[in-house]
Amino acid sequence: MVGKNSETQNEQENIQPEGELSVRTLTMPCDTNHNGDIFGGWVLSQMDIAGAIYSGKRCNGRTATIAIEAMKFIQPVGVGDILCCYCSTVKEGNTSLSVKVEAWVVRKFETERVKVTSGVFTYVAIDEDKRPRSINSKTVLK
Ligand SMILES: CCCCCCCCCCCCCCCC(=O)SCCNC(=O)CCNC(=O)[C@H](O)C(C)(C)COP(=O)(O)OP(=O)(O)OC[C@H]1O[C@@H](n2cnc3c(N)ncnc32)[C@H](O)[C@@H]1OP(=O)(O)O
User: Fold this and answer.
1) Mean pLDDT rounded to a whole number for the chain
2) Nearest to 84 by CA among 60, 49, 36
3) Residue range 14-24: average pLDDT?
4) Which part of the chain is the HotDog ACOT-type domain (predicted)?
5) ipTM of this predicted complex?
6) Could you give the angle at the alpha carbon of 6 between the alpha carbons of 31 and 104, nearest 5°?
7) Which residues contact 8 (CB under 8 A, 6 or more apart)?
8) Full-prediction pTM beyond 0.80?
9) Mean pLDDT of the 75-84 span
10) 63 lines ligand 1 (CB under 6 A)
11) Please, which residues have CB within 8 angstroms of residue 48's CB and are 6 or more apart in sequence?
12) Residues 6+ apart with CB under 8 A from 42
């Protein structure tokens, strides 16, 4: 069974996700690699979407990902797992917002959450010409 040891560890240490749930989705067979696990790149893209939704709300409109800190994939994600991405603010700059995104999964037919990876994603608030703008500027949300 994938990741059972870490689940037990999470329960024992009572580790909980940090931040606001931004994306929750079901993993599908089309997202697997040649080993039958979910592609790390697919997980990364879901985390980027989660951070983009979170930063879009905070920055009142469009944002673009400018940087992603090094990440460690702690354990594999399987088909049928439910991926949950939680976001919290690490740093607010003038035009940028750094967001910690934690990825957790609920294993297929189980109930406990297991942390699979986390990373800091930085977004820049951009205007309609795709130029940086203040994260506090009020833009039309489109
Ligand atoms: C109710 C509302 C709901 C809304 C709901 C929305 C939902 C929406 C869902 C979308 C879901 C899909 C989301 C996919 C998200 C992409 O896929 S975005 C695509 C990938 N990213 C790109 O193509 C961006 C390409 N880069 C660029 O266009 C330009 O670099 C940018 C972003 C316009 C920035 O321009 P620049 O001249 O390079 O920026 P610069 O002035 O040097 O620096 C800007 C800020 O970034 C910081 N920065 C620069 N380099 C770095 C670095 N390496 N590390 C950290 N920070 C850095 C600077 O310090 C500065 O921050 P501040 O000090 O102002 O706070």
Assistant:
1) 91
2) 49
3) 93
4) 17-129
5) 0.96
6) 45
7) none
8) yes
9) 97
10) no
11) 65, 68, 101, 121
12) 27, 31
pLDDT of residue 6: 52
87 CA distance to ligand 1 centroid (A)? 17
Please report which confidence band the pLDDT of residue 12 belongs to, taking 50, 70 and 90 as the band edges: very low
- The rounded distance, in Å, linking the Cα atoms of 113 and 104 is 6
> Mapping DSSP to helix (H, G, I), strand (E, B) and coil, where does residue 92 land?
strand
Cβ of 45 less than 6 Å from ligand 1 = no
Contacts for 19 with CB less than 8 Å, ≥ 6 apart = 86, 87, 88, 100, 101, 102
Q: How far is CA 105 from CA 30, 32, 63, 119, in A?
A: 18, 15, 26, 15
Residue 85: pLDDT over 90: yes
SS3 21: strand
